[in-house]
Amino acid sequence: MVARVIPVEPFELVIFGGTGDLARRKILPSLYRRMKVGQMPPEARVIGAARGKMTRKAFQALVQEALSEFVAEADQTEADIQRFVEACDFVTLDALGTGGWAELGKKLRPDVTRAFYLSVGPSLFGPLAQRLSERGLVTPESRIVVEKPLGHDLASARALNKELSTPFDERQIYRIDHYLGKETVQNLMALRFANALFEPLWNARHVDHVQITVAESIGVAGRGSYYDKSGAMRDMVQNHLMQLLCLTAMEPPARFDPDAVRDEKLKVIRALDPVAPGNTVRGQYRANGVDGSYLDHVGNPDSRTESFVAIRADISNWRWAGAPFYLRTGKRLRTRMSEIAIVFKDVPHSIFPEVDEKRGNALVIRLQPDEGITLRMTIKDPGPGGMRLTEVPLDMTFADALEGQEVADAYERLIMDVIRGNQTLFMRGDEVEAAWAWTDGILAGWEAGSARPSPYDAGGSGPEDALLLLHRDGRRWREIEG
Ligand code: NAP
Asked: pLDDT for 401-427, tens place per residue?
């Protein structure tokens, strides 16, 4: 099966921080892959910008190196790499300085869509937006792209929104949450709104609860000082898990267009109850003999920052009242896996008296590894000897179902959406602020208390307290397994 590719209009993408890690690992390889499948038109150009002095040739060599490191070998062909590299240019420029801006202005064509990707630290977002405007580089067809961290709390998120929205209209601002670019996450919307099967059951009358898990096996070694100022709540829950919760819980939008979808997501966030500290669990991983502990990795023995968090979130609306959403994310867990599990209620009356265990069906949407969907069903255990029941998965792995068709990286989809001017998969300013307002309440509850995060074993499934959070509600977490 061959994916349909619709070429986008010619564009110029300026990557501020074009020599940095995000540009080399994600942005440049994603653009290359889009060019390779014929989506990037020949007139398109990519302009890197950073403080380091560099000629166009030297930047092109850096791009070539990034492609050879981060693009699968099978996708690297000499001719394509040359073609892509030829489309790249560079300007030496300090976001906080005055030099280089005139040169950048000269390189941009007035009649071509411009996208400014701010692949730099968040303290530079405001100054860059302001300079772009002062230098007259913002045309009506310009877009600005930013990604997390979009603030540290509600106040800083508001300040950032203000800085961006002075020179740019909301319709020009693209706030990336790369989870929204994942094929499975978009499939969640297709599953819900393009099939009549699930929607009648998609509510608290039939759903017992929802579990959203984003588990990572790596720790924070190497980025400890950044992480210790952030923690799992700010780094993962406020953005990625919140977006997954919204797409799972939202009402069907009237249309699949940016504002209709984002209006519905916003309503979900606003319907979330404030969370009492007793409905949360914080954890920090301890050493497992080989690797260090969280405290070793951040170099701060007194840190109270969480590397794990579990939350019971309740949505007060007609659809979800009574069916909690349990969120869980952490570092140094058993394996790397992300999933959304919709756990349905048990049958109202069992006619199989010898079966005492509850067997609610579960619909599991796997984000990683092996993106796909599983429906856990109860069937008769084969063979004679009475009516025994067993569980089997009704399984669909996208890679198999789509006959080897390649699943594009989230950044490929998102960058092309920026060029197309489609904001459906990007967060709106009010959505980000509402998510921070909810998150701030939880953080304030923790700060007011004296409790420290609970320790958990590296390579395990999180602190004991997280198990109790569900046990006390008569439920249990799904296994963290690959
Ligand atoms: P990085 O590797 O440190 O790169 C930063 C880039 O910005 C470099 O090209 C640097 O080049 C340039 N830069 C720094 N100060 C500048 C200034 N004053 N004016 C112009 N350019 C400047 O950082 P990164 O990992 O790529 O991350 C960039 C942003 O993306 C951060 O906000 C990060 O939180 C976010 N992010 C990163 C990832 C990731 O996977 N890396 C994922 C999600 C979000 P010079 O020093 O030569 O100026």
From this structure: 777 676 788 999 999 999 999 999 999
